[in-house]
Amino acid sequence: MENFKQLGISKDLIKGLNELNIKKPTEVQNQVIPLLLNQDTDIVVQAPTGTGKTAAYGLPILERINPKIKTPQALILCPTRELGQQIAKQLFKFTKYTDKVFTESVYGGEKIDKQINSLKRPTHILVATPGRLIDLVQRKAVSLESVQTIVLDEADEMLSMGFRKELDKILKFLSNVQNKWLFSATIPMGIQEIVKDHISRTAEKIYLSKKNIVNKNIKHQYIVSSPETKKTDLMQILKAIGKEQGIIFCKTKNATKELTEFLISQKISANGIHGDLLQKERDKVMRSFKNKGTQLLIATDIAARGIDVSNLDFVLHYELPDKDEYYTHRSGRTARAGRQGVSLAIVSTSEIKQLRNFEKRLHIIFEQL
What we know:
The chain is of the alpha/beta class. It is globular, with a radius of gyration of 21 Å. The chain has helices at 4-7, 11-19, 27-37, 53-64, 81-94, 112-118, 130-138, 155-160, 164-173, 189-198, 230-241, 253-265, 279-290, 324-331, 352-362; strands at residues 43-46, 74-77, 103-106, 125-128, 149-152, 179-184, 204-207, 218-224, 246-249, 270-273, 296-299, 314-317, 341-347, 366-368.
């Protein structure tokens, strides 16, 4: 479809989308929105990161909300605080010209009392990380009795962060919900088990561009280096990149800390994000990066979950990830919403074999610089 009106989206929501310069539906929105808009159904969608999944499920949810019912009618589960805040913000922007639809985002790392107070207000849509949702339900701070739709967003990331037990618990508790919508960039074994255990056998299944698990707007490149010259090579890359903004990935907390300290000592505008940071420190780092106050974010795979910064020029793999899905999620931080981006790896000669494996399994091509 050429526009959202043809998909069945109401004019007041379209007005909000136009203001955000969202005019032409993406592939996932074209396929998913008509299915979710007017009927109760379960659905499993595999689509690359950054292809407009929030609007694909968010717009049908907003069309179905009854503003008169003041308790949550839709529950969106996601892996991180950052992603939860981003989803809530996006839904809020979509509804600028519609009846008031209230979305609340709850997550760990924040004082629970503050969130309990917020939930006393009318809440039509609840966006939650799994652990914090269970805490709130156990404290009877939120009622899920009116929930008709449950969304698992970035389902594979929730699994890789260790939320399997919590997801099973929530899905069992809400087993009678009319709509269960699962969205994931990859469908590993754990996701297949969740689908088998909790999603209807008649669920719609949409595997978008199976050959394009990784966003096709990303250019994949590599340079060959050695442990002795790696930092010097990195500095040369950064010199060539100039003022462009990006994320540099390491495999461990220690490597992240060490590289951040090195870059700062070289007068490079950099900040690190890893598991040892307090939530307050993490928020400060992310705020600075999102506001373009920092050029480079050095991150571990886990710490970077759910980060969405618009117009990110590149991601750089200072250390290669071990798993295909980690490469998918890392590179998916760039080239979002139809833009172009670069994913650049610094590898040793012995790691070239790993790149060839990524090429084969993810259907991508690496170009040597």
